[in-house]
Amino acid sequence: MFAFLKKPYPYYYTRSRLPVLALLLFALAFAFVYFFRPFNVYYPEHRLSYFLISLLQAALPVLVFFCFFSVLNLVFRDAARPNRWQLWHEVLALAFVLPLMGTANFLIRDLIYDNPGNWSVAYLLEEIRNTALVAVLIVFLLVPVNLRRLEQKFRSRSLALNRLIDQGALPGHAGESVRVTTQVKSDDFVLHSAGLLFVRSSGNYSEFFSRADNEPAARKSLKRIPLKQVENQLSHIRGILRVHRSYLVNARKIIKVSGNAQGLQISLEGCDERVPVSRGYLDQFRQALREHTESTA
Known about the structure:
Layout: H1 2-5, H2 18-36, H3 50-75, H4 87-107, H5 109-112, H6 121-166, E1 177-180, E2 189-192, E3 196-202, E4 205-210, E5 219-223, H7 227-233, E6 240-244, E7 247-250, E8 254-260, E9 263-268, E10 275-277, H8 279-296
Antiparallel strand pairs: 1-2, 3-4, 3-7, 4-5, 6-7, 8-9, 9-10
């Protein structure tokens, strides 16, 4: 069970995705409460129409959900990185946010119900229970099903890419030295492409990961230059590929491509870190491998 919970799981709550996810959750919650009416409804106590009550009971928990994961994005900036977010993180985060969502519905009971006992522990527990019951389908059914679906999908894609890798040497020169001009003149340096593994964006900075043949592990250097400028300055070097909005990779250093629920990840020579391949760059990455394989056939 512990090994299952340690499986990588996609982090869906990034700042760009969170508003869309919140709107989708609101629509599902409203439809479920209004049309299916899963809980006992005592209409004489209602201060508002059931339509408005359903809107409130869907909107307020979703607002809590949005705020919770917005704060999480600020506190845990690395959550969306490959293999950082695991299934147990997903379950734990939902276990925290569900009681908060139920408590939010409890706090508006006086607005919804004409009941002198609104502020009781029993009603607080009832609201938390009802919220949990609505979400149990997501946590205990959809999450494992989605995990299995994603694992099968990306493992299949990784096998196809590894077949291309195995068919011939990867693109790139044996080695080329390039002077990289940064935004701070004293930071300018000469990059030896033969030892470059990958480059990762870090805001206005870029992290260069390199390893010489006689070095036991990769070393990292931080330079003040955006990744786009790095890509422009290295564009003439065959085999330096953009595989993610935050990563450039030296294709000659690729050992294999693996797939899990978070997507495709590249393993590199002498490096423990894995480089993600995003969906937007997958076709470009696959085409680069295919073109080189065909040219060496």
